[in-house]
Amino acid sequence: MTLKALFAATATAALLLALPANAGQLTIGFSQIGSESGWRAAETSVSKQEASKRQVNLKIADAQQKQENQIKAIRSFIAQNVDAIFLAPVVSTGWDAVLKEAKEAKIPVVLLDRDIDPSGKELYLTAVTSDSVHEGAVAGEWLAKTVGEKACNVVELQGTVGASVATNRKKGFDSVVAKHPNLKVVRSQTGDFTRAKGKEVMESFIKAEGGGKSICAVYAHNDDMMVGAIQAMKEAGLKPGKDVLTVSIDAVPDIFKAMAAGEANATVELTPNMAGPALDVIAAFKDKGTVPPKWIQTESKLYTASDDPQKIYDSKKGLGY
Amino acid sequence: MTALLPRRGLAQIFALIVILMVDRAVSPQFFDLRLQDGRLFGSMIDVLNRGTPVALLSLGMVLVIATRGIDLSVGAVMAISGAIAASLADSHGLPVVLAAALGAGLVCGLWNGFLVSILGMQPIVATLILMVAGRGIAQLITEGRIVTFTSPDLVWLGNGAILGVPVPVAIALGMLILTGAVVRGSALGLLIEATGGNARASDLAGVGTRAMILAVYVWCGVCAALAGVIAAADIMGADANNAGLWLELDAILAVVIGGTSLFGGRFSLLLAVLGALIIQTMNTGILLSGYPPEFNLLVKAVVVLAVLLLQSPKLTGMAGIVARIRGTKA
After folding, report:
1. Where are the transmembrane segments (chain B) (predicted)?
2. Which of A145, A259, B72, B168 is in Cβ range 3.0-4.6 Å of A309 for a Cys bridge?
3. What is the ipTM of this complex?
4. Do the chains contact at A189 and B293, CB–CB below 8 Å?
């Protein structure tokens, strides 16, 4: 990856120097974090698609998870006088100086996927992010609707302890559970967002709950842990998707494969398309001067087995997840 | 007095029994076993099965540590071999897949051994290089995504069973016997210990210390590669970002719990594997207990501290004195 990232960085640098912007065509610089996860790779490829759909010249700079690289990229975008800058900030603080430079150069900045420290609110145009509390709530609502009045013992696979996404996805789910006395989270343990840990933790849940007979549903903070949990259930002789309901978050391709096989029930999408709404905002801002709200929330769409999972799998698997 | 001094292995066996009892207390069905699809099923099996990667790592690590070295790269080597195995699994037969994955481990071990033994680098620095770069290589192979496979042969390595015993457990047992037979069935173990005890003196006495050091790093690499293949087979996919992450620390911990000194000079294969089992028995117990995950690391730290205190010669010596005073009073 490091080599590839290095190539990517050099290639972007070369592109930045070589390509003059076409007259009339928007040129936007996008400082991307780097390839930290499959979702991030998918976000990069969807951003490219969305930009070419709108005939926007999108220059992506890969920061290899380093803030100083992002700051360098933003400065170079300012020097080239791009029309707008997209930033997926790797950390939430330390952006004031460079964003002030962008503001002085009258280049609007849109934050993608992650927010920055509130002290810099006036330094960017808007932030396009998902609401992870809402994602947890959507997962909870689906479960509440599916089980109806029946009593249901839920086991929960949490993300990494202390990660804000994990805390929020738990909070959203718990808020729905609190409203439905028939739902009860009987076990909750961290699976560190990985398949291997998801499987290991699910194995222990099954043993602790009398071979899994008392488990009615599994809620996982991400799809990868759910894929591991599904394997654990199958090895224990349970039928995930039938005996045990499953709901998780992210909508990565492999969960659609499981859904198509009838082994998973639902997933809530964390859309990799953050650039689409951001591009629309910039177009409106440039054309008519429309100032968008400070926060644009992306849709947390629910997918179930009735959404033709095989087709979604085929369309998603090429995105680099 | 002599009975109170820790005999080798006594402290570890005692610790394992205590942790097993605690597990039994938090989860009454802990020792229950049944057959599920021709495979034994129960918490004890989980302990053995989940403990396999660290047990395999500790088999290589204990020999490296016996030469006064350390190998920080084993987690990264797991990621590399897993990535190679998963990438080849659906297009090649199992022998090719295994040869490629284990071959990669061998090359990684040779690299570490070359840096330490031929160039004379400090082991902690030499292996740190591969620890950092290795995960990058693995990500390069998988292109940053989780590479999945369906090859039944490779899946069997992670999820199959031989006479009810999970295949990973059988492999770990086989490797323990093989390693034991090679190093203890010959003078090799003694030469490794001599190298760790005093490399210069051993060299002058005619021990090929360079070859010894190179060999233990190679073996450590092969063991790590095998652990990586099993970890990938278990989840039917290679996750380069997370496979084997921080497991080098668990492997070192297993070796230390097993009573092997980081200053080299002596080692016990069996106790290192027992150390890995102690760690996993504790992990499984924590998962079964139902405590909030925020306590996981705290519980682990306290248990590890207790196990190491049990082995501390000073502390057990003090306990002996206390017992003697009590004895004279009575």
Report:
1. 48-65, 95-116, 123-141, 161-192, 213-233, 245-263, 270-291, 297-323
2. A259
3. 0.92
4. yes
